[in-house]
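Sample entry (108 residues):
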Amino acid sequence: MKFIIKLFPEITIKSQSVRLRFIKILTGNIRNVLKNYDETLAVVRHWDHIEVRAKDENQRPAIRDALTRIPGIHHILEVEDVPFTSLHDIFEKTLPLWREALEGKTFC
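Predicted structure, serialized as tokens:
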């Protein structure tokens, strides 16, 4: 299970040194809040987002709920990593998940 966390805009407009310090503080806060849910949790910092990876799928709703209560987070995106070999392979894997939502819609 993987979450991609987008930073609050106030953090993204800071200078490089301040931004890195705020991101480090935010990752520490995320680790502190989520350590009760999963000890094997991995929190990885990037320049424009933070990745949270956990092994226990049963904790998904609890982790998502806990992330919504941490200041400094703008968006929480739940991601499913799926290997693919071609663009058509992506279509084949995506169609069953989104068929009902896309039915009757057109693309330009």
